[in-house]
User: Which sequence fits this backbone?
């Protein structure tokens, strides 16, 4: 099977497996292990693709196209560029970890649960490889369906409200995008992202951006974020902030910036301002959050702001840094939320008031949380540092104050992340931390260690992503050519 | 032309009488408190309509009107009214007051519109109708039409009646059943 | 030589990884020795590359890259190291002193139940520090810069059950993060103009930049340096950092990391030469710091804090040197300071370790009677610190002052400050000495003193102290301006002393006369006040004392200006914007819609006639509209 | 000798098949013993519908170019055939559901009498379907009116078939009276059009208007308005929709399912034909009229559904809203709009039928109307039905799990192509609002535990085996999901069908 | 033709139609509502026949005959319902049938 088929397989395999799991009356164990197996196969397939990928070449790779709606020129058109390849990688890895976590935790109603997780995997991969606007939209929406149930069924006490918020917020954005897509596609006679020309329409641009701004999310469109991240099951939150949110920033890069050069430059300052605002605002609120998840939630909002800053700086450094940051932060927040889940399972709470002193006698937990935490606060030398550095260097080239604000964000990041670390690990033992609360078990280690391992690997070689995301590592040119 | 033939005068008189009867009986149907009287008024209404049909040289329809309607349908009506027992109900009572007002407005609006339209139209082609031969509207002529141009309509009509009959049987058939608690 | 340098870099990291992987399966002692060996291996590597470089003196900086660490378009940053006199010099100090201190900590940390973690951290620190000094371009320098900050955070907060320790660690990290940020901003400027962070290209670009721009760059670098080296106004973290284990204070907060600021200025001196104003600011900061720290040290009662403040003030000297362009003098003092300050810390550590981790000098009176070796070691260290002739401090400090003297008017000011500083040094150092060591042991000491098998400490602790004692005493003789200056020569290819900072013999002479006299004067005063029979009472100047005890109110100021407002703003945003506005707007809209829905439902009142009415009315309206618009 | 017109039996074969089956079923009411009536009549009905499907497919294949037959009073073309296929399919699944669910739960005191009117019911079902099958092919206002009454009267009776339940009676009465009022207005409108043009056949009307330059003639326009009102009533579009929720709620659920899907198919296919064939000159008027009606339906349907607790009623309102979406396609008056609407109808009717069928199952299980509260845990107790319901409502909501997604996309495209971006915006906003109550159904089924149930299921937890209903739901599910993927072939069908219309 | 023009007949037709509608709108006794519906249909019939006369083609009359049949059918079902209602001892008042609402 050639690499092009692999793209489709990456989408369809989990969907098919989901169907299978729903249909077959398998035992809890069989279901779980099947799901884990499938998600590992996904990872393997992705590696296969990454190995075969020609990072120097221009244009779309591993592409496949079949007509879907001929008379409106809509087609099933998938393919990959460097950056989408990496985002797919992020997806499969994070999803594998999440599925594994669900298996380890032993979620009840396993068939429904794992089916939905696999469905989510397929949909998310689809978002990152879709090359047709309607197809993109379809996957973009399809991601929500399993999320809705996953959070609503396996979530925390406030899950109902959270799911409602999540759905209505994101849908209100993406429905506007649907309108924009319809107009765009009919105006230019095709919905194909490659064939379609660039558009000078600012309204369309805003229509698309709204969806992405809400999904990312950027200030002030983050109303859905705290509830969802707090109520969702840990591994779902991990995916939500690690992968799903990246769909928003990916959309900015692939569609908004690429297809709307003139509006992009017109609204550049405004959107960079939003990015900066999210960065500062998110960091500040993260600093005052009372619980583990709250901190990470707002920190990922800040990260989205940073990524947007990089993307809309419109510079080589900015683009590369943004992609790198997407992947790095994806892994970081996935790992952090899984750790949050581990802590919650041991202490029944994520509130700092009841936590503390968990480092004593729990070396694995302490080490992993510490490592992830310091990577999250972008300590120099880490992958996320590399990303931030590039982004800020890029945005400095746009105007010095962006870099200054960004740098202030770095300091704030140190503040809230250290607060989190010491509130969980250090100082006196929290009232809900019992002695018998165990260190990370092998099961959890086998999920989190790989994530952290990948992060460390990236920290040793961030160029592996930053210089392979765009053809000839010349993002501005690639964007100008619309990745053709 | 000013030449008014005797026939013309007669037609005019008949028309005025029938028209007036028609309107009056129509109003009566709506405004009687006792459905029994309303039904009777409707019969009158149908009869006067039959006259108007005749004036419009639609003999067969007029005949059918009298036979089918006044004959069959109204009899059915009277039977049911007798079966149910006449219950008096003052026409203006019940329902929110705005509703009566709204009713007047809506009905009035429809009426006015139509009349206005016809008025506008009357300025045009309506006042002059072509003369038609005596065969026009005769049973034979109707039958021919039924078997040629409107064959399908004819068939459908019978089906509609059949369906209605089935319905009548189902709904009206008197079966002793314990009345059970409400649902819905 | 390159191989040596790489070996020197990777060995400590290997040690860390080994200990991490070993985890709890690895016995503590093994972990300790793994760390120690790894650092000594690093030292061997350093020596190797030093001699190799010494052998071929023809060209002086060798770069070696392993892979492209970061790349974006044309902008690429290889993972490369530089081997040149400066870096080898630093490598030797870091790995050498580091090795000794790690060895020392084997004894010091013995019995701590998280010993492994400690050794993993400290080995990691040595790696980061070596990365800092070997880093072959600005970005790797910054990476090392950040990593030493991280490891310092980890080690300060090593005893993580102590809230004070955790707080101190956070404080240190955040202040350094600020420094890193300014550092990074400086780099952004360079990237924007040269799209590269190679030393050579960066310096070349800097010379072409507009004055304001290059000033900006230099300022950014200076910010980083000041934060790392605890110079005013970014100094408040250092005293608190004493919460960490004593060897950590010795290694990180005395010998190596805190002096990184000096290294940075020296390394990037071309930029500072292009921005003379900023260079002077650096020197000025140094001067202010050395005075301020010296004065604060006078009133400290915690043995380690006294030494910490003295560290600040000594680094102040180095900054002065670097600021006026006498880089090699600065580096020389960096070296000697590393020796004697580490010595002082470790001696203090011996005391603390022996007396139940007590650090309050008022309780430690007369401990010298029980610990003669420690007493003498400390005395020698103190002498070196004060700059008594023939001790190392004398050879390294005075040339700095001399170099200042030959500069413009502000040079004279710096010189004066330096001399006052010398007096203060003598005063606080020997205040400490006289209070703690001589005389009869206090009851507390008698009660709590416990010897290590009849010795003052395990051999792993005593040997490094001994070695450093010797070094502190004699290491200064390596270079005796103006008679012989091997270090200056060795370093000159990388960091040539600016002509303005070339001291004349006269400068050297006069300084070398006055400085020791002032130092000794300080000692005498200290003896008069704190000596066995106290001839002088401590002068009571209430406001001054309060000022000094509150360390010039810096902490309070920061709390007032930065921390409180930040917290307030965050809370405000959360309480008055996030919760009432952002989080509720959506649901409010929803509520409104639901209300609308209820209204619509009331229309559906179940009355058949209403429905018919709507049908008829709709029809009527439709007809009217049609007739109107037809 | 009267020259009777040539009768193209094949053109009306579907209708005849259905009628034949209807008569057989009716006879079985008297000839077949009670114990056999249900299986007999239902299998007759099933066969009839199957036959209808076959003949109408054949008709589709065999009449690529449309013509009028039987004294030019019936259209034999693919538009008719396509609609007939859909109608027969709906009838078939309706039969499957009705076998187990007529009469509805709680309607009868003694089970012995359950089979009293079953044969008549199937006869009426067949009759109604054949009436619709005729309606979509009607070529003049008279056949239009008559066939409209034909199936309406059947529906009136079917609504009231559970006449032991006041709800059922009420539904029947309301539907009858409002329906008669509506058709009366349609009739008067037809009369006016006839008066204006002297013709009753669509094509003739258009010709006359051209010949006599009657465009915007007062009689014509007024007639058109009244006809639109009548059609809007049948399509249950606001403000002519008021009967819909009550009747849908009161009627036996299988009948509701049938009405919700079949009536819309018939009314809208007819509307497209009559408006484009008879009133092309008035396009400006009726496009705007239907745009307005669509907006009204979207607004009222969605808003009223928001706070419903009774699921059946909620779905009724949702069908009003869906009518709004469908009418967007109609209102453009373009081929794209027509085929988009046709496609959307397929997806919609599948989802609508399926969702009501699932409700029927739950109703029977509970023995009382389904509310959001007593739907709790349903998704876990009946995995298949739960999943199906989930997909149906998400397809309504336009999420990409069903044809509803593509359908919405199509009608929006049509609206934009017609230059009505504002209508696209309205549709999008309506979709967002609708999401709230569609999600509420899923939430009730999956996210509330059945312990929260106020009333425990009457049939002690283990639901009755409903193979036929499951089969019907399965079929609906296949269509609903299939329309998401097999867009191209279906659209091609629709395009060819729409080619028969004079655009 | 003799007598008044078609327009006058149409006037009567309109009046009947409106009267019927009015009856449906205000009356609550289902029987009378049904009668009112009859009147509406008759109004339409009159219009049809008048137009048929005016157009001099028979379509109108045929249509009218069809309508009579339909009217009979509606009445049949309607009366069936009335009977059923009456058998349930429910009040013969359309306003009483507001179980289904909201």
Assistant:
């Amino acid at each position: 099977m050639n690499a092009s088929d692999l793209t489709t397989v990456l989408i369809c395999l989990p969907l098919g497996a989901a169907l299978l799991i729903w249909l077959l009356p398998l035992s809890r164990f069989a279901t779980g292990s099947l799901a884990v197996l499938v998600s590992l196969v996904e990872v393997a397939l992705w590696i296969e693709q990454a190995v075969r990928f020609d990072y120097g070449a221009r244009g779309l790779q591993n592409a496949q196209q079949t007509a879907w709606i001929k008379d409106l020129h809509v087609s099933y058109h998938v393919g990959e560029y460097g950056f989408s390849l990496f985002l797919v990688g992020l997806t499969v890895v994070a999803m594998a970890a999440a599925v594994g976590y669900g298996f380890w935790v032993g979620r009840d109603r396993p068939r429904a649960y794992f089916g939905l997780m696999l469905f989510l995997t397929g949909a998310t991969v689809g978002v990152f490889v879709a090359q047709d606007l309607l197809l993109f939209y379809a996957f973009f929406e399809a991601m929500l369906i399993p999320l809705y149930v996953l959070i609503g069924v396996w979530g925390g006490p406030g899950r109902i409200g959270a799911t409602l918020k999540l759905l209505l917020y994101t849908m209100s954005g993406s429905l506007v995008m649907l309108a924009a897509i319809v107009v765009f596609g009919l105006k230019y006679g095709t919905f194909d992202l490659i064939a379609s020309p660039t558009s000078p329409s600012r309204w369309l641009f805003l229509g698309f951006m709204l969806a992405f701004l809400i999904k990312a999310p950027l200030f002030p469109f983050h109303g859905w974020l705290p509830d969802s991240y707090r109520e969702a099951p840990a591994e779902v939150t991990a995916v939500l902030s690690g992968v799903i949110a990246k769909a928003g920033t990916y959309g900015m890069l692939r569609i908004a910036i690429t297809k709307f050069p003139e509006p992009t430059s017109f609204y550049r300052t405004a959107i960079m301002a939003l990015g900066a605002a999210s960065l500062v605002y998110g960091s500040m609120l993260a600093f005052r959050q009372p619980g583990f998840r709250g901190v990470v939630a707002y920190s990922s909002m800040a990260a989205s702001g940073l990524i947007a800053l990089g993307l809309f700086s419109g510079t080589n450094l900015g683009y590369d840094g943004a992609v790198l940051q997407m992947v790095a932060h994806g892994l970081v927040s996935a790992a952090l939320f899984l750790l949050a889940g581990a802590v919650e399972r041991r202490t029944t709470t994520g509130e700092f008031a009841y936590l503390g002193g968990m480092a004593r006698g729990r070396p694995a937990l302490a080490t992993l949380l510490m490592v992830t935490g310091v990577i999250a606060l972008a300590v120099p030398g880490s992958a996320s540092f590399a990303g931030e550095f590039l982004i800020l260097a890029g945005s400095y080239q746009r105007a010095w104050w962006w870099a200054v604000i960004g740098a202030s964000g770095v300091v704030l990041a140190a503040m809230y992340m250290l607060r989190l670390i010491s509130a969980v690990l250090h100082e006196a033992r929290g009232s809900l931390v019992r002695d018998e609360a165990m260190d990370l078990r092998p099961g959890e280690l086998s999920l989190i260690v790989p994530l952290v391992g990948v992060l460390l690997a990236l920290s040793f070689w961030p160029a592996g992503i930053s210089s392979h995301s765009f053809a000839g590592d010349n993002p501005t040119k690639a964007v100008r050519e619309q990745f053709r | 032309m000013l030449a008014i033939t005797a026939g013309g005068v007669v037609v005019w008189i008949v028309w005025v009488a029938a028209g007036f009867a028609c309107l009056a009986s129509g109003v009566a149907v709506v405004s009687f408190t006792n459905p029994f009287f309303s039904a009777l008024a409707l019969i009158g209404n149908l009869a006067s309509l039959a006259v108007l049909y005749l004036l419009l040289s639609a003999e067969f329809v007029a005949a059918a009107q009298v036979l089918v309607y006044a004959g069959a349908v109204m009899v059915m009506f009277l039977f049911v009214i007798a079966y149910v027992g006449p219950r008096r109900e003052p026409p203006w009572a019940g329902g929110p007051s705005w509703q009566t007002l709204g009713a007047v407005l809506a009905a009035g609006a429809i009426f006015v519109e139509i009349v206005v339209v016809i008025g506008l139209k009357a300025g045009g082609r309506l006042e002059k109708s072509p003369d038609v031969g005596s065969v026009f509207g005769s049973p034979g002529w109707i039958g021919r039409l039924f078997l040629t141009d409107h064959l399908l309509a004819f068939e459908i009509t019978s089906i509609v009646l059949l369906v209605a009959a089935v319905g009548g049987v189902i709904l009206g058939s008197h079966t002793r059943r314990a009345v059970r608690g409400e649902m819905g | 030589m390159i191989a040596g340098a790489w070996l020197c870099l990777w060995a400590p990291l290997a040690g860390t990884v080994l200990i991490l992987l070993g985890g709890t399966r690895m016995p503590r002692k093994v972990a300790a020795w793994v760390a120690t060996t790894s650092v000594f291996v690093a030292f061997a590597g350093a020596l190797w590359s030093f001699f190799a470089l010494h052998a071929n003196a023809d060209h002086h900086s060798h770069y070696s890259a392993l892979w492209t660490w970061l790349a974006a378009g044309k902008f690429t940053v290889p993972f490369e190291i530089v081997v040149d006199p400066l870096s080898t010099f630093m490598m030797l100090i870091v790995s050498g002193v580091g090795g000794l201190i790690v060895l020392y900590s084997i004894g010091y940390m013995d019995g701590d139940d998280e010993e492994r973690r400690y050794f993993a951290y400290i080995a990691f620190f040595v790696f980061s520090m070596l990365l800092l000094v070997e880093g072959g371009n600005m970005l790797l320098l910054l990476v090392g810069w950040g990593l030493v900050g991280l490891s310092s955070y980890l080690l300060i907060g090593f005893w993580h059950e102590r809230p004070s320790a955790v707080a101190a660690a956070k404080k240190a990290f955040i202040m350094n993060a600020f420094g890193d940020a300014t550092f990074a901003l400086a780099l952004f400027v360079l990237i924007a103009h040269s799209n590269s962070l190679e030393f050579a290209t960066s310096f070349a670009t800097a010379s072409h930049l507009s004055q304001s721009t290059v000033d900006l760059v230099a300022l950014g670098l200076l910010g980083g340096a000041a934060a790392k080296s605890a110079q005013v106004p970014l100094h408040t973290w250092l005293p608190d950092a004493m919460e960490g284990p004593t060897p950590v204070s010795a290694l990180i907060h005395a010998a190596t990391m805190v002096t990184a600021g000096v290294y940075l200025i020296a390394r990037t001196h071309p930029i500072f030469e292009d921005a003379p104003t900023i260079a002077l600011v650096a020197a000025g900061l140094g001067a202010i710091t050395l005075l301020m720290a010296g004065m604060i040290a006078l009133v400290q009662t915690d043995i380690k804090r006294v030494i910490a403040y003295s560290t600040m003030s000594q680094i102040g000297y180095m900054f002065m040197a670097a600021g006026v362009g006498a880089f090699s003098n600065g580096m020389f003092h960096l070296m000697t300071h590393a020796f004697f300050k580490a010595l002082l810390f470790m001696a203090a550590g011996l005391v603390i370790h022996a007396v139940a981790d007590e650090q309050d000098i008022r309780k430690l009176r007369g401990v010298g009677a029980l610990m003669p070796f420690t007493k003498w070691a400390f005395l020698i260290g103190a002498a070196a610190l004060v700059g008594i002739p023939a001790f190392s401090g004398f050879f390294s400090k005075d040339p700095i002052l001399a170099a200042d003297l030959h500069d413009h008017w502000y040079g004279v000011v710096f010189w004066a400050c330096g001399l006052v500083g010398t007096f203060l040094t003598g005063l606080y150092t020997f205040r400490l000495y006289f209070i703690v060591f001589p005389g009869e042991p206090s009851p507390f000491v008698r009660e709590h003193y416990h010897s290590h098998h009849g010795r003052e400490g395990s051999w792993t602790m005593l040997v490094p102290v001994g070695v450093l004692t010797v070094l502190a005493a004699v290491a200064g003789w390596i270079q005796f301006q103006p008679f012989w200056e091997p270090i200056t020569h060795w370093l000159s290819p990388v960091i040539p002393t600016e002509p303005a900072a070339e001291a004349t013999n006269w400068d050297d002479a006069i300084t070398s006369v006055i400085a020791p006299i002032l130092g000794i004067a300080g000692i005498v005063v200290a003896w008069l006040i704190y000596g066995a029979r106290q001839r002088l009472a401590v002068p009571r100047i209430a406001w001054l004392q309060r000022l000094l005890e509150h360390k010039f109110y810096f902490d309070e100021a920061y709390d007032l200006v930065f921390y409180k407002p930040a917290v307030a703003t965050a809370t405000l945003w959360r309480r008055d914007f996030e919760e009432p506005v952002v989080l509720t707007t959506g649901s409010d809209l929803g509520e409104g819609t639901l209300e609308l829905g209820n209204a619509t439902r009331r229309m559906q009142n179940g009355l058949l006639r209403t429905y018919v009415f709507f049908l008829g009315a709709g029809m009527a309206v439709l007809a009217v509209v049609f007739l109107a618009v037809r | 000798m009267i020259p009777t017109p040539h009768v193209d039996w094949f053109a009306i074969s579907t209708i005849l098949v259905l009628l034949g089956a209807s008569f057989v079923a009716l006879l079985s009411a008297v000839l077949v013993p009670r114990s056999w009536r249900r299986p007999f009549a239902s299998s007759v009905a099933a066969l009839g519908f199957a036959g209808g499907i076959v003949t109408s497919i054949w008709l589709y294949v065999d009449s690529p170019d449309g013509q009028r037959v039987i004294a030019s009073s019936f259209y034999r073309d693919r538009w008719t055939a396509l609609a007939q296929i859909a109608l027969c399919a709906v009838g078939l699944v309706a039969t499957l559901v009705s076998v187990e669910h007529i009469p509805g739960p709680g309607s009868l005191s003694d089970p012995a009498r359950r089979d009293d009117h079953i044969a008549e019911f199937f006869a009426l079902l067949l009759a109604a379907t054949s009436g619709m099958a005729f309606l979509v092919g009607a070529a003049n206002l008279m056949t239009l009116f008559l066939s409209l009454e034909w199936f309406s009267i059947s529906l009136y009776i079917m609504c009231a078939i559970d006449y032991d339940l006041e709800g059922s009676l009420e539904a029947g009465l309301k539907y009858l009276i409002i329906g008669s009022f509506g058709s009366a207005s349609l009739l008067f409108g037809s009369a006016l059009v006839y008066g204006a043009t002297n013709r009753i056949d669509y094509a003739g009307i258009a010709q006359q208007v051209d010949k006599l330059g009657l465009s915007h003639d007062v009689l014509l326009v007024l007639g058109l308005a009244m006809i639109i009102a009548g059609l809007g009533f049948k399509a249950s579009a606001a403000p002519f929709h008021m009967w819909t929720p009550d009747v849908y709620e009161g009627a036996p659920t299988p009948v509701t399912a049938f009405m919700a899907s079949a009536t819309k198919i018939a009314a809208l296919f007819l509307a497209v034909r009559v408006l484009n064939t008879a009133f092309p000159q008035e396009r400006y008027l009726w496009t705007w009229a239907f745009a307005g009606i669509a907006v009204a339906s979207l607004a009222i349907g969605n808003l009223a559904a928001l706070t419903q607790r009774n699921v059946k009623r909620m779905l009724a309102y949702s069908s009003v809203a869906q009518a709004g979406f469908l009418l967007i396609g109609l209102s453009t008056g373009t081929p794209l709009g027509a085929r988009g609407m046709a496609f959307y109808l397929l997806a919609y009717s599948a989802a609508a039928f399926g969702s009501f069928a699932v409700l029927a199952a739950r109703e029977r299980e509970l023995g009382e109307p389904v509310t959001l509260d007593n739907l709790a845990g349903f998704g876990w107790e009946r995995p298949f039905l739960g999943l199906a319901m989930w997909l149906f409502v998400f397809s309504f909501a336009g999420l990409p799990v069903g044809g509803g997604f593509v359908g919405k996309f199509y009608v929006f495209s049509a609206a934009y192509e017609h230059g009505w971006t504002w209508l696209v915006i309205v549709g999008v906003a309506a979709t967002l609002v609708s999401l709230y109550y569609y999600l509420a159904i899923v939430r009730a089924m999956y996210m509330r535990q059945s312990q929260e149930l106020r009333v425990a299921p009457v049939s002690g937890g283990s639901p009755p085996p409903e193979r036929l209903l499951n089969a019907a739901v399965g079929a609906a599910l296949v269509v609903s999901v299939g329309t998401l993927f097999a867009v191209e072939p279906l659209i091609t069908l629709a395009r060819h069908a729409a080619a028969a219309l004079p655009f | 033709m003799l007598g008044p023009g078609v327009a006058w007949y149409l006037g009567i037709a309109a009046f009947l139609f409106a009267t019927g509608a009015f009856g449906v709108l205000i009356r609550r006794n289902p029987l009378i509502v049904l009668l009112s519906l009859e009147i509406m249909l008759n109004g339409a019939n009159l219009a049809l026949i008048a137009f048929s006369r005016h157009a001099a083609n028979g379509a109108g009359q045929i249509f009218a005959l069809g309508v009579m049949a339909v009217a009979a059918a509606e009445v049949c079902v309607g009366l069936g319902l009335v009977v059923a209602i009456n058998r349930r001892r429910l009040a013969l008042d359309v306003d009483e049938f507001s179980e289904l609402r909201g």
About this structure: Chain C touches chain B at residues 607, 609-610, 613, 616-617, 619-620, 623-624, 627 (CB under 8 Å). The longest strand of chain C covers residues 62-72. The CA atoms of residues 617 and 623 of chain C lie 10 Å apart. Chain C has a mean pLDDT of 90.
